[in-house]
Specification:
Elements (H helix, E strand, L loop, with lengths): L11 H11 L4 H10 L2 H7 L7 H11 L3 H7 L7 E3 L9 H16 L10 E4 L36 E10 L5 H12 L4 E11 L3 H10 L7 E8 H11 L7 E8 L8 H13 L9 E5 L8 H5 L8 E5 L5 H6 L11 E3 L5
Parallel strand pairs: 1-2, 2-3, 3-4, 4-5, 5-6, 6-7, 7-8, 8-9
Helix pairs in contact: 2-4, 4-5, 5-6, 6-7, 9-10
Keywords: Leucine-rich repeat, Repeat
GO cellular component, one term: cytoplasm
């Protein structure tokens, strides 16, 4: 007997990916690539370049390291908004310096720009330049699918640069460090707006330096990892300044760095720390993972919320029966869309 088995059905996303791989480059892409082969010609042609070619040409120049062209394109950017998107994964310090030099030329008004650039999103997002910018110079804001009703940090400067910062083992990477210093030197015209801050491991001096430059009201997502109670005590005054927090993640927060201290001292610190927690007026998502001091203190922790949560995740934590009994009576979780109470195994 001969058995013939049909091929499994392929989902639409697979077909779309296959089409993208096999499809030939568009005329716009070919035109951008051809122009980039001659640097001097490309730079001289920028003033006459059609707006629709700018995003694609910038992306090609960014990926292929045409830094002089990048620097020349920024002052002539024809749209009010600029997204770096997924390209930031390929960011090098040299590329960053050239792009920032282009911004310096823009704010110095040495070159007459086609459109007033209002905002640069210098962060890793799921969308790039393509398909977003054509036509966006005709409207004042972003398209509806990108607009979100979020708290405003209310800082008005000539140009807003939105970014994410990661403080890993007490230090920033070289690009983030350079960006911070660049923004600090131009604080009269540049507003560095940090939407997401991740702190994994803590060096106090670095945190102090960051909050001298970054406005705490800008931070909407905060992730604290691999810290101890002493670190949270140090951070607490800064947490009280973050009034527009939407997402808070606590991951691997341990009791103390001092191995000789007793559990009674830890409990005293926990009670003091929880009593000093800031009021979170806009919080929508709270994720707590591997945080021992939640045990028996869940009620006190949730009291700091000012509005009902949409997402609550408490994973790899020990909870007492009193913690679980409190949940049905907590007004701040009555409107939850997602609840995850995965226990500690």
């Amino acid at each position: 007997q001969l058995w013939i088995r049909s091929c499994p059905k392929q989902n639409d996303s697979f077909k779309e990916d296959t089409m993208n791989v096999n499809s030939p480059p568009t005329l716009m892409k070919l035109a951008s690539q051809r122009l980039l082969r001659e640097e001097a010609l490309a730079i001289s042609a920028l003033k006459e370049l059609p707006n629709m070619l700018f995003p694609m040409m910038f992306e090609e120049a960014f990926i292929n390291g045409h830094t002089k062209i990048l620097k020349a394109m920024i002052p002539l950017w024809p749209f009010p908004y600029f997204f770096l998107g997924m390209m930031i994964k390929n960011l090098t310090l040299d590329t960053l310096k050239d792009v920032l030099q282009g911004i310096d030329i823009l704010i110095s008004k040495v070159v007459h720009s086609r459109c007033k650039l209002k905002e640069i999103k210098w962060k890793n997002t799921d969308y790039g330049l393509q398909g977003i910018w054509p036509g966006s110079h005709e409207v004042d804001g972003l398209s509806e699918f990108m607009e979100q009703k979020q708290p405003d940090c209310r800082v008005k400067k000539e140009l807003k640069v939105i970014t994410h910062l990661k403080l890993m083992e007490g230090s920033l990477d070289e690009c983030a460090t350079y960006l911070l210093h660049w923004a600090q030197q131009r604080k009269d015209s540049i507003h560095l707006c940090c939407r997401k801050l991740k702190i994994q491991g803590l060096i106090n001096a670095t945190v102090i330096e960051i909050f001298k430059i970054v406005h705490a009201d800008c931070i909407q997502e905060l992730e604290l990892c691999c810290l101890c109670l002493e670190d949270l005590e140090f951070l607490n005054p800064y947490l009280k300044q973050i009034n527009n927090l939407i997402i808070l993640k606590l991951d691997e927060i341990k009791g103390t760095v001092s191995m000789g201290e007793s559990r009674n001292i830890d409990e005293e610190k926990v009670i003091t720390l929880i009593s000093q927690l800031p009021t979170l007026q806009h919080l929508e998502k709270l994720c707590i993972n591997d945080v021992p001091f939640i045990e028996g203190n869940l009620k006190e922790c949730l009291r700091c919320l000012k509005k009902p949560l949409e997402i609550l995740c408490i994973t790899n934590c020990y909870l007492l029966q009193s913690d679980l009994d409190y949940l049905p009576y907590c007004l701040n979780i009555l409107e939850l869309k997602c609840l995850d109470l995965t226990p500690h195994w």
